[in-house]
Known about the structure:
Elements: H1 2-5, H2 11-18, H3 22-31, E1 34-37, E2 40-43, H4 48-68, E3 75-77, E4 80-82
Helix pairs in contact: 2-3
Amino acid sequence: MAIEEDSSQTCGELARQFNTSSEMVRLHLHRLGKTYRLIKWVPYTLLEVRKQQRVAACLSLLSRHRSAFIFNRVLNSDENWFL
Length: 83
């Protein structure tokens, strides 16, 4: 697969390589479970270790919220969170 040979290729580069549209490339990569992160295509699924880390972080934030009202100081902008 072209992505596995060079995961830093963009949709535009792959579209030119396969003589199709960028949107078609995005659609097929999504169906294959790939997402574009950190300037390369990576599997979309989370490893079990990462899931456990996220749960631990969320539990920590929730316990802080109950004791210190930390979420009163959170500013949400789009999908980015700032403390």
